[in-house]
Specification:
The protein has about 375 residues and is an alpha+beta fold. It has a domain of about 250 residues: DD-peptidase/beta-lactamase superfamily (Beta-lactamase). The protein is about 50% helix and about 15% strand. The protein contains 13 helices and nine strands. A five-stranded antiparallel β-sheet has the order 2-1-9-8-7, sandwiched between helices. A two-stranded antiparallel ribbon has the order 3-6. Helix 1 packs antiparallel against helix 13, helix 2 runs antiparallel to helix 13 and helix 4 crosses helix 6. The radius of gyration is 37 Å and the shape is globular. The N terminus and C terminus are likely disordered.
Length: about 375
Amino acid sequence: MKTFFRNSLLLLLALMLLLSLVPGALAEGDAPSDSAPADAEQTLPAEEPDGTGIIDGEALTQWVDALLAEHQITGSLQDFSVGFCYTGTGDCWFYDADVFMYSASLYKVPAAMLVSEKEAAGELTQDSVIMGNTLQYLESTALTFSSNESGHALVDYMGGTYAGKCADQITRYASLPESYYTENYYQYSYYTARFMTQLMKTLFDGGDEQFPHIIEYLLPADPDSYMNLTLKDRYQVAQKYGAYQEGPGKNNNHIASIIYTPTPIIVVVMTRNVPNYQNLMAEVGEHLADYSLELDKTVEELKRQQAEAEAHATEIPEAPQTEAPAAGTPDGQSQSPAVPSTRPQGKLPWIIAAVAATAAVATASLVLAEKKNGKAASQRRKPKH
């Protein structure tokens, strides 16, 4: 009996050792192959999400390339950036849109957005007097007529600096990583077309509910200039220009706009040292407005195809599931269904099966050995005649 308990104890220890190997084997072989390490750092890309992918970015890039070549905008000191967003799907396209340029008066849009959020929250009204003037006066003159005094008053009210404006407060209006922004952005109010496009999309999405009166004051701005040069008879345009000469060879001229095509679009054009910039901006705006009509047709076609597919799926009943006759079966008569395989799948079932088999064999061996020992002992104890 002592031998039996000793062997049982050894068997138990062996089983525990085998079971201790199971987690390691499972972790090594059954973990998803595409899982990232737990300590991996994730860095957000500067690129926009792909959206639906309906924009032909290559075609638009080739068009802008041809436009600049036609106007001989090829100098090393010249910059021409474009940002475009089709609000129907959120798809965006950018052309050289990560070049930082001095924002000039573009900063007045996000500065006014910051203050208007306070109005939306009930902290202010259009009649509230801040920085010596009513909010209505400051916002309307800054956005419609680009008053520098009113723009600076909005920045001062929000606690911003003259040079950096409210740069640290307005990054939340875009979905760009912190690493995207440069020292020039924070210290001297330098923007990119990508940043400004995202900011204008935030303004459009928030509307009067989040940013009361901002678009209202941008709609009458520059009725005969910039995007309105080509679009004023076709669509409403809410736009804000920026123009500033930093010094010789540093002429910044920009436009940020919401064009109210059937599906509104965001168009931002930022330039540096580009002659005839207003006409070029207007040409870009007109081309993208026309292109948005093609996107409308694409979206409608996709919706039609989806509706047809859904209707087709509900009209056609699902075919009954029948087993095909086995090859070589006489008269096509079906045979008995195959018995599902009971073979363990993966490493864990195999290890458990091996442990169980080992335990069974060991137990049987112990029982037989014990019987044998018992029989021998019995024979030894049998009295001799």
